[in-house]
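Thread: pyridoxal-5'-phosphate complex, take 2
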Amino acid sequence: MSDFEVTRWLRPNIRGLEPYSSARDEFSGEALVYLDANENPYENGLNRYPDPRHTELRKRISAWLGLDPKMLFLGNGSDEAIDLLFRASCNAGTDRAMAISPSYGMYAVCAAIQGVEFDKVLLNDDFSLSADRLIRAIRPVHKLIFLCSPNNPTGNLLDREEIIKILEVFSGVVVVDEAYIDFSDSSGLIDLIDQYPNLVILRTFSKAWGLAGVRCGMAIGNPEIISVLMKIKYPYNLNSLTQKRVLDALNKSSGIPEQLDVIRDERERLFEGIESILGIREIFVSEANFILVKVDHPKQVYNQLLNKGLVVRNRSSQDLCAGCLRITVGTPEENQLLIESIKTILS
Ligand SMILES: *Cc1c(COP(=O)(O)O)cnc(C)c1O
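Output below.
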């Protein structure tokens, strides 16, 4: 079993940090008159500071996910949680982080900003995770390991048992980014959260929930880690409009994103449409809302799609992704146009 210990994992300066105490931290009850925060007293719906602890929204999301609110952090996108995990744990110049490759680019960027060396461990050729290979690369200076499931840009789920092997031995935090989990047939790893104090799961309202513009993401983990993230975030990291909009979305949909079924059906239709095109080298089964497709001349295909007004993502420079374009599932009309355009380009 992992010998993870929050205190040892934290940077020394974070261990003893006294966080900023806002007016709303010092008084959070109901009052007749609020003269404590230097706000403009004239009501316009936004003249008051937002709740720094997101109390109502955290309660609502926790109930939906079956969690204690103490296990939930909300950030300005899950990108904020990624950044804060680095700032909480990694001493610049000495500590290191690790991630699978290919994967989401923000892990490396946040490492670089914090001055932390970053090690990539290749997935297998079929994009599956080899826990043994990753574990062999772990050194005592590693504080964070990033896994992404379903993985961006490959679209596959990582094997649960392989992730558990890593959780069992790593004395830092394993971050499992589940930004795309809603699109998959899996319910992810939330059920392991009480069992592994070194597991942090990231979720987001940016993808399946159709709320990329509001910027709201989640980190789920043991209360000690979550309380540290709460302590080091900007006091008002989620504005009032964001908190209200996410609450409305959850209340309206009883916990299931509105267009999820359509997007999943369209993913299958897009897959079949592209698969049957002559000149497609390979197409990868996806549990996310995008499909990775291999062609002979990715740059050329990318540019020709662009000439027709369609933008996809060229991922051909990423590890194991030579020749690959990543295509997001659009509306039925958009997908049809994409299929016909590729057909014309490759014929
Ligand atoms: C899109 C994406 C996110 C989302 O980040 P937000 O900041 O919540 O919008 C996180 N992780 C991965 C792998 C993604 O692809």
